[in-house]
Amino acid sequence: MSEAILEVNEVTKTFGGLVAVNAVTMHIEKRRIFAVIGPNGAGKTTFFNLVTGIYKPDRGSIVFDGVDITGRDPAVIAGMGMARTFQNIRLFGSMSALENVMVARHVHTRTSYADALLHTPRYHREERKARDRAMELLAYMQLDHRAQELAKNLPYGEQRRLEIARALALEPKLLLLDEPAAGMNPQETEDLQRRIVGIRDDLGITIVLIEHDMKLVMSISERIAVLDYGKKILEGTPEEVQNDPRVIEAYLGPGAAEGVQ
Amino acid sequence: MLEVLIQLLPSVLLEGLILGFVYAMIALGYTMVYGVLELINFAHSEIFMSGAVAGAETFILLKGAIANPFILLALAILIGGTVAAIVAILVERLAYRPLRKRGTTNRLVPLITAIGASFFLQDLVRLIEGLWHNAFYRRYPSFEVFEATYTLPNLLGSLIILLTLWLVFWVVAYFFYWIYRTVTRTQGISRKASRGLWIAALVLTLLSAVIYRTTIFGDLGLTIQMKSILVVVISFAMLYGLNWLVHRTKLGIAIRAVAQDAQTASLMGIDPDVIITYTFLIGGFLGGVAGVLFGLLYTLVHPYVGFIPGIKAFTAAVLGGIGNITGAAIGGLVLGMLEMLGGTYLTFLTNGAMGTEYKDILAFAILIFILLFRPQGIMGEQVGEKV
Amino acid sequence: MKKLFQNSAFLSLLIAASAVIFGYWLLENPRSTLAFLLTLGALLAAFMLDIPKWLKVLVGGAILLLVIPWAGFKNSFLFELGVQTGIYAAMALGLNVVVGLAGLLDLGYAAFFAVGAYTWAIFGSKQANQFMPWHIFPLPGAYFYLFMLVAVVMAALTGVIIGSPALRLRGDYLAIVTLGLGEMVRVLANNLDHPINITNGPQGITPIQRPPIDWFIALFDKFGIHMSRAEAYPLFFYFLVLVIIGIVTLVNIRLDRSRFGRAWIAIREDEVAARAMGIPLLPTKLLAFATGASFSGAMGALFAAKQLYVSPESFTLIQSIMILVMVILGGMGSIPGAILGAATVTILNVDLLKTASDYLNDLRNAGFVLDLGIFKYNFANLPNQLEPAKYERMVFGLIMILMMIYRPEGIIPERRHVAEMKEKE
Question: Which residue in B381, B382, B387 is closest to A54 by CB distance?
Answer without folding.
Answer: B387
